[in-house]
Every structure is written in C-alpha cells, then in structure tokens.
C-alpha cells in the first residue's frame, strides 16, 4: 500500500502536536507527582525508599523487558494486518504479544522482590521489602498498558494513549495527599499507588478495545508470527536492559546522600517532559508511516520524513534544554515543595537539572532514530548505540565516588547527558548511512535534498537569543511579588521565551514553524471530520 494523505508532512505534524498536547498534560501531572513526593516525604531516606521501590516496576518492564521499545516493534507488524483489513489477525498477534510479555514479567517479578531492597540503606530495608511487594503487580499493568498503546498507535490513534497516564498521576497525588493527612500509613501508600497504576491500565485496555482489538492474553509462543516478533525484539530487550541498568546505577549512587534519589528523579522528570513533548510525539506519529514507506520501498520519502521529524523534534527540545540550563534554579524553587523546599533540597534539584539539560537534545536524536530503525525492522543498531551510551555514562559516573555532597548530583547529571549525546550521535550516523538513496530506490518527487543542518542552525540561534530575556524576566519578577513571584516569574519567563523564540524563527522564515502551523490546521480540520472505520477516541 502506497503512502497516502494520512502520511503527509501536515498529518505527521498534526498527530505529533496532538500527542504533545496530551502528553504535556500527563507529564505536567508527573512533575507535580514528583514534587508531591518531595513535599510529603522530604529529603529523607524514606523518601529515597518510596521513590526507588516505586521505580522498580518501571525499570523491570520498560527496562529489563524492553517496555516501550518492545511494544513499538508490534506497531509495524500490526500495520500490515490493519492495511489488509484483517481484524482477527490483529487481535491474534496483539494477544499473543501480550501473553508472551506477561510470561516474561512473571519470570522477572521475583527477582525484583528479592534484589530490590538490597540497594537500600539508612535502616529502610524492611519498609523497602513491604513496598516492593505492594508495587510488584504494577509490572503486569505496564505490560497491558504498553500493548494497548501499540494497538492504538498502529491505528493512528494517539490522544487517549498519551493522555491516560495523567489518571495514574492524579491517583498517586490523591494517595500522597491522603498519606500526608494521616488517612493511612505505608500500607495505604503502597496499595493506593498500585491502584492508580491499575486504573491507568484499565483505561488503556478500553482504548484498544475501541479501535477493535479487545486484548486477551494468548499463547503467543505457539504463533509463528508472534515468535518471529519475539526474536526480532530480543535486541531491543537487551537495549532497554542496558538503559535500565544505567539508571539503576545512577540512582544507587544518588542514594549516597539523603534526598539524593528524590532530587535526581525530580530533575530527571524535566528531561522526560521535554522528550515527551518533542521526541516521543514525533517518533510515535512517524513510526507507522515510516513502516509503510519502508514496505513500499520509498527510500526518498522515508529519508525526507525522518529528516523533517528530527528537525521538528529538535525544534522543541533544543530551546527547552536552553531554558532548563539557564533557569534551573528558578525551576527548582517552584517544584521543591514542602519538606523538600529547604535550601539544601532546592540546591540539589537545581544542580541536577542544570547538568541534565544537555541530555534532552541527545535523547531526542537517539529516540527518533531508534524508531526509524524499528520501522526498517532493524533492532541491532539501537542496541549497539546503547552500549556506547551506557559505557560513556558509567565511565563519567565513576567520578561520583570522589565527589561528596550535592556536587555528586552534578556528576551524575553530566554522566547521563554525556551518555545520551554519545549514543545519539552514534545512532544518527548509522541511520544516515543506511538510509542514503541507492540506485534503483524509489524517489518520490519533491523529497530529495531535505537537510537537517540549516534548520538545526536556526533552532540553535533562536534558543541562544531567547535565553537572556527569559532569565532576566524570572529574576526581575521574583523579588517584587514575594513567594508567589517564583511561579509568576517562571510563567512569565516561559511566555517571554516562547515569544522570543517564535519571533526569531519567523524572522528567519523557519520551515519548522510553518510545519507546526500546517500541523495545527490539519489537526483542527480533522477534529471537525468523522474518521472512517474508527469508533471515536
């Protein structure tokens, strides 16, 4: 099937904007959730314990079983059945995939229960064991969530999948508020947190059912197509395992200082927000389209779409990284609340955030190129680049053993950023080499000559120009308005940053700005039309 209007630049950008908007809601509640953890539990070893043990289900699924990478391989496989109108085959393959994922998770869950508490310190081992036992069911929920999201994305349905995590965050915020009010103790905290994840999983399962795929676990190991998918996924599982191991080691090192895990994860949540708004929407919306272009042998359109996607992702994340770097301290003052809102707590978050800012750009390049590889059925190249990423990160992190106090978080942030930059560069060079047009390739008219460098230059120039006015706005408004001035000054600084950046891009006649406008028009036009063959959502 040839790529059609649904694969146009405006359609890709429109879907990216839709994902970004809903993801913004989810990630904003995510940042609020981390801030609430700091406010309620403070810079303490118990705060470290809750945050660390609650991260384990994520690390097990999204890390050691491949998580979103694993499920993203399901999208290209489903696209073929969807284009043929073969609903039973889609349900069989998705159910088989879910069955194999749950089986793998059942094998890994006991390891998390046994080994997780061993990384704790400060007399928190017993509490940690209880929390790990209460959090383990989340692992299976994440398996259902990822499979449901893959099903919806394969049908080009992105909104619900991106918005539903906000329900999980809202649930956990309510649980933390109840804990702070004395409604319950550690048991209430653990059960409530897991219940919120269960609610998120139920909504995603319902969303997959709305596009015609009611997910029921099946014996995928008896299905040749599912087994082929599993073999292809093994490198992505290893890739995610390496990345999870990297994060686990960084968190263990952060646990050397009270509140270090909370502060580092709070700062890391800003990196997740930036990539959720820049890299993930572009990568997700491109994946089914790039898969179709690869199946069609349309090399020119594949390369042009990828170059535009990278430009669009960096158009968002480069200025965001600059904003984080320049305004790390004001951002830390706003999100370090309650017991975390001490001078020490704010300093730790600010130092970690400034050091992590560069990771936003490196991860954008890495993830968009990773999804391009998956669209081609290539899972080996991202694994090799992850080895480069993790090796670089851990080599730099070793310096942390020599650094005392909050400066440790600077070293860990720089280590993460250096790894992201090295891995992203390594993978981008590979993808550029293998997607270069060859004799005999199909070259769709108008797709030749799409280059990334000019657009990246304009984006960097805009980020440099906006940094000064944004910082000055935050500083000038913080004093006169008292404590409330922190948030007001930050919002004003964000508004100034966006205005200056957009104005600069307009003066430079940036094609990326025109693409965003075109995507908005496409999105607004689409929402006023019914979508054939899909029951809303």
Automatic annotation (TrEMBL):
TM stretches of this protein: 59-81, 93-118, 130-151, 158-180, 186-208, 229-254, 266-288, 309-332, 344-369, 460-481, 487-508
Record carries keyword Membrane: yes
Protein localization: Cell membrane
PANTHER family membership: LIPID II FLIPPASE MURJ
Pfam annotation, one family: MurJ
Protein name in the entry: Putative peptidoglycan lipid II flippase
UniProt membrane topology term: Multi-pass membrane protein
One BP annotation, GO: lipid translocation
Source species: Longispora fulva
GO molecular function: lipid-linked peptidoglycan transporter activity
Gene Ontology cellular-component annotations: plasma membrane
Superkingdom in the source lineage: Bacteria
Keyword terms, alphabetized: Cell membrane, Cell shape, Membrane, Peptidoglycan synthesis, Transmembrane, Transmembrane helix
